[in-house]
Amino acid sequence: MIVDTHIHLYDPFKPEGAPWPDPEDEIYQTTLPERCKEQAVPVGVDGAIVVECSDWVEDNQWVLDCAEKESFIFGLVGNLDIHDDDFRANLERFDKNPLFRGIRGRLRKADDLDGLRDLAARDLSLDLSLNDQTFTIAESIPDLRIIINHCAGIKMNGEDPELDTVDRMRRTAEYPNIFCKLSGMMDLRCTIRPAPKEVGHYAPYLDLLWDAFGEDRMIFGSDWPVSDRSGRTYAEVLQLAQQYVATKPASAEAKVFAENARRVYRWNER
Question: pLDDT digit string (tens) for 78-118?
């Protein structure tokens, strides 16, 4: 089984528009579940988790409405501002939908924790970009499942990795409630265009992540359609991840491509 834990859905041409992506962006087009399925299903993907990029509250509902009609969507990582006076009301509203599996976080300071405690109390998860606040969150709320996006920020351009980024990633991995997404390799972590396809280009960097998090806390995500910016197809993004995981123990495949995602997002097959 393969579950893609990081795709984006949006429609800049719906009546109210969309705040992301920009009109000049090559991925500025209507992006609904069917378009993802056209690329993902033929290469063996069984379902996907949507990560909301829009900071408009009602765009969370828009995705949930799309997902209600499409069993390929296993869940939504919403986008809610924990500093908004309506955060708790919005969280309660969306948590009534079983497809709502958590939020992505953008904290302004390390002590903005009350809203995140509400997440943990509701058995929801938190997607984050790795930063210094991650340690405070993980230590203060040990029962909150935290997912670090896009290979923890490690650049993969053929040069030596930045030591401070690697050190911060390793420190983060010491917390058992933190997971890491095997995502963004070609489009965010590598800026060579088109991105290299060879697994050997990425392996030295991915080994750093694997050594820190291991097969029990690594999760696949394509970052589609942002991945299109890399000059590579969805199939090539998935193939890169599969080729890398194939170099690890046989038990890793099921964990990275489905089981770890089920543990962290608590999604149900539809």
Answer: 999 998 899 999 999 999 999 999 999 877 665 578 889 99
Please choose, from the candidates 259, 254, 104, 260, the residue with its C-alpha nearest in 3D space to the C-alpha of residue 177: 260
- Cβ atoms within 10 Å, residue 235: 15
Q: Which residues contact 34 (CB under 8 A, 6 or more apart)?
A: 70
Query: 181, 219 in Cβ contact below 8 A?
Result: yes
Cα(235)–Cα(237) distance, rounded to whole angstroms? 5
Q: In this predicted model, what pLDDT tens digit does every residue of 235-266 receive, in sequence order?
A: 999 999 999 999 999 999 999 999 999 999 99
What is the C-alpha separation between 261 and 97, in angstroms, rounded? 19
Q: What string of DSSP letters covers 130-177?
A: --THHHHHHHH-TTSEEEE-GGGG---SSSPPPHHHHHHHHHHHTSTT
Which region holds residue 155: left if phi is over 0, alpha if psi is between -120 and 50, else beta? beta
Architecture of the CATH domain 3-265: Alpha-Beta Barrel (3.20)
Q: How far apart are CA 257 and CA 245, in angstroms?
A: 9
Q: Which two tokens stand for residue 3?
A: 């579950």
Nearest to 9 by CA among 55, 72, 51, 69: 51
Q: pTM for the complete prediction?
A: 0.97
